[in-house]
Specification:
Blueprint (H helix, E strand, L loop, with lengths): L4 H7 L6 E8 L4 E6 L5 H14 L1 E2 L1 H10 L2 H8 L5 H12 L3 E7 L1
Helix pairs in contact: 2-3, 3-5, 4-5
């Protein structure tokens, strides 16, 4: 049985030292930020983990990210637009694009 997102978050690296993550396409164009704010800290933890393990968000990283988002992945697939950080990973799985990550530390 897969873990709930809450359990996954407890196992991921700490993000207290991370201000935000900046996301860019392969050409260096800015795509989005994930800030260390209430409501986006779960996404920040997942993307930080992906950065530490993959150094970019490629197909393999996106698949791992969707696994980490647990029950929220199924919800995001049902309701596109409600979870933009998961939607981004779903898009990568479908298109095999790669995104670059920049970590902004405190």
């Amino acid at each position: 049985m897969s873990q709930l997102f809450k359990e996954v978050l407890n196992a991921l690296p700490d993000i207290d030292h991370v201000i935000k993550i900046k996301i860019y396409d392969v050409d260096g164009n800015f795509v989005d930020d994930i800030e260390n704010l209430r409501g986006s800290q779960g996404s920040l933890k997942v993307y930080f983990y992906l950065y530490k393990n993959f150094k970019e968000i490629n197909l393999e990283a996106a698949q791992k990210g969707l696994e980490l988002f647990s029950e929220h992945t199924a919800e995001a697939k049902k309701y596109p637009g409600n979870h933009p950080n998961i939607d981004r990973l779903i898009d990568i799985v479908q298109t095999n694009k790669t995104l670059r990550i920049e970590i902004i530390l405190r």
